[in-house]
Design brief:
Blueprint lengths: L1 E6 L4 E10 L2 E11 L6 H19 L3 E5 L7 H20 L3 E5 L1 H9 L6 H11 L11 H18 L1
Parallel strand pairs: 1-4, 4-5
Antiparallel strand pairs: 1-2, 2-3
Helix pairs in contact: 1-2, 3-5, 4-5
Length: 159
């Protein structure tokens, strides 16, 4: 089974394709789809949707795991990320992908056993679970978050 993990973002959307075979997981692909700051709002959303659609067409995932939004301060940013997330869910529907959503707390809990874990702790667990070398440490935070969301889905399947 291929799981597409998504860390939604407006400027940078983390995407990861994880293969679950038996009891093991393997990272097939990860990247950040990046929208240009100089483009119009609509073009940026289109860029994110198009980038995601290319990944879906190439890897043909079975499921999509996506992080739920959590913002407490910047409403303007929250709205833009929510709209980018909407474009992501549209692509999931267009390609008939089952979607499961996780809060940041649920992702941290699934990977570290502690819902208030720091980003660095989550990153270490991602690298340990997938047996990633030092090159994995160079991945952008959004990529690591997308991998973590996909791994959280894996954890949900085990329970």
């Amino acid at each position: 089974m291929l799981i597409l993990g998504i860390d939604p973002g407006y400027e940078r959307m983390g995407c990861a394709v994880l293969e679950k075979s038996g009891g093991a997981e393997k990272l097939i692909y990860s990247t950040c789809v990046i929208s240009k700051r100089t483009d119009s709002h609509e073009k940026r959303l289109l860029c994110l949707a198009d980038g995601l659609e290319k990944i879906i067409r190439e890897y043909k995932p079975d499921k999509m795991a996506i992080e739920k939004l959590f913002f407490s301060v910047n409403q303007k940013t929250a709205i833009k990320v929510a709209e980018a997330r909407g474009a992501t869910l549209l692509m999931a529907a267009k390609h008939d992908l089952e979607v499961i959503e996780f809060t940041p707390l649920e992702v941290k809990m699934a990977l570290t056993g502690y819902g208030r874990a720091e980003k660095e702790q989550v990153k270490k667990m991602v690298m340990a679970i997938l047996k990633m070398d030092a090159g994995g440490a160079k991945k952008l935070d959004d990529e690591i978050d997308a991998i973590a969301v996909a791994l959280a889905y894996r954890s949900k399947l085990k329970s």
